[in-house]
Automatic annotation (TrEMBL):
Protein name per the record: Cytochrome c domain-containing protein
Alphabetical UniProt keywords: Heme, Iron, Metal-binding, Mitochondrion, Oxidoreductase, Transit peptide
Domain (Cytochrome c): residue spans on this chain: 156-281
Superkingdom of the organism of origin: Eukaryota
């Protein structure tokens, strides 16, 4: 057993090796061949071979089960999210590569008894192996719909052949590929009433909205009827999902800001729409408030001002899915970046806390309860996917280009059955 002192030393060694040995994000890797898979151990995948480089259709190794909780999915459709576009540019590397290193180390495990030199050697071997170019080709894509083709021994609630929806953690290879590796707590049965294309629009935004509203915002879906909620960016993927979640839970009032051309969509989903560009936007929001929870899905001047709309001394919370954490750690490094993000969070709360309110960040995380709730809600007719455009697999770079403009109505989805979708998308 490690003592407290040796545990601290171990963490210092880990941090040192992580800094020295993990792969550099700016480094190029050998480009993968653009060809059809030559054998059953390879698959086609859209990947980047360096950050800020074009997406390339590559031959890459098939994923394999590494532990008992994993599932391999034959991808039938996947969505493209803003996080995919930003990660292709290197966003979040400092944190995500550290998590990847730590996950690799934990999966490998340590002998029960080992001395200091053995510990150092094991850590070094782990990070050295991870630095052998496996960062690239980097496959993006955080959610998909497809069919289970293989599973670990601990996955007892799914069978090979089951149709499922799934999310993939950001530190793992994504699902813009013919097959994808996910985890037991990140997979749920696909809604039977939806196609794979429709289903792929749901998992990532659902888990993100759930993290913001339930995990961070502390909303109890069974006791939410009395709440009033304001959503900034109500017409985007997370915004449209959050509106529907709140309406499913019977929330008394849901108000959402968006552009004028998207107000009809927001109102069809069940929210009161406010044009954030209108001169009278602040007056309209004041008339609708105060709110127990404000959710920022879009960073705007109006969103920053809206702390004024929180109820006073009612433990109200202003939640944002746009945290500075990943941006700051990329800019300043892990330690200084964490410190910078922490200081910004403290500064952000100076005024709200004087009124008994809080401003908190929310982060996407796989959530089995959420994914099962999504499937059940769709089957009850209470939830529907909001899809802006569907692209064929061969046009996936065009999907990235569209999502990168950040002006969509709902989700952008890629259908892997190219016979269904013409070139250029629908």
């Amino acid at each position: 057993m490690f003592s407290a002192r040796s545990s601290f030393t171990f963490l210092r060694i880990f941090q040192c090796f992580a800094r020295r040995c993990r792969p550099s994000l700016a480094r190029n890797a050998t480009a993968a061949a653009q060809a059809q898979p030559s054998n059953e151990n390879q698959m086609r995948a859209w990947a980047v071979n360096a950050f800020n480089a074009p997406l390339v259709l590559s031959n890459v190794p098939m994923p394999t089960i590494q532990n008992d909780n994993q599932v391999i999915i034959r991808v039938k459709a996947a969505s493209v999210n803003p996080i995919d576009v930003r990660m292709s540019e290197g966003y979040g590397n400092e944190v995500l590569s550290t998590i990847k290193c730590l996950t690799e180390f934990v999966d490998r495990g340590l002998p029960k008894r080992m001395d200091f030199l053995q510990t150092q050697q094991t850590i070094g071997e782990t990070f050295s192996r991870m630095g052998q170019g496996d960062q690239f080709p980097l496959i993006l894509g955080r959610d998909c719909s497809g069919e289970v083709v293989e599973k670990g021994r601990a996955v007892t609630d799914l069978d090979v052949g089951d149709q499922v929806i799934a999310v993939v953690p950001p530190h793992c290879q994504g699902c813009h590929s013919e097959f994808s590796l996910s985890f037991r707590n990140a997979v749920a049965p696909k809604p039977a009433s939806l196609s794979h294309t429709e289903s792929a629009a749901l998992p990532y935004v659902a888990c993100t909205a759930w993290a913001a509203l339930v995990t961070t915002g502390r909303i109890d879906p069974n006791k939410a009827q009395h709440l009033r909620v304001l959503i900034h960016g109500g017409a985007g993927g997370v915004g449209t999902m959050a509106i529907q979640m709140l309406r499913c839970w019977g929330v008394e009032k849901v108000v959402a800001t968006c552009s004028a051309e998207k107000m009809q969509l927001v109102e069809e989903l069940g929210a009161k729409a406010v044009d954030y560009r209108a001169k009278e936007a602040k007056e309209q929001l004041i008339a609708e408030g105060p709110f127990e929870l404000i959710l920022d899905c879009a960073s705007t001047e109006l969103a920053e001002w809206s702390d004024e709309l929180l109820g006073i001394w009612r433990c109200c919370v202003h939640v944002s899915v746009n945290s500075p954490l990943l941006r700051d750690t990329d800019r300043y490094g892990l330690s200084m970046g964490l410190a910078s993000a922490g200081m910004k969070l403290l500064s952000r709360n100076l005024k709200p806390v004087l009124k008994g309110c809080f401003a908190l960040p929310a982060f996407f995380a796989p959530n089995s309860d959420c994914l099962h709730w999504v499937t059940e809600s769709v089957e009850r007719g209470q939830l529907r996917p909001v899809i802006d455009k569907v692209f064929p697999f061969s046009d996936l770079p065009k999907a990235y280009e569209k999502v990168g403009k950040m002006h969509g109505r709902g989700k952008t989805v890629v259908d892997f059955d190219e016979t269904k979708v013409p070139s250029g998308g629908i």
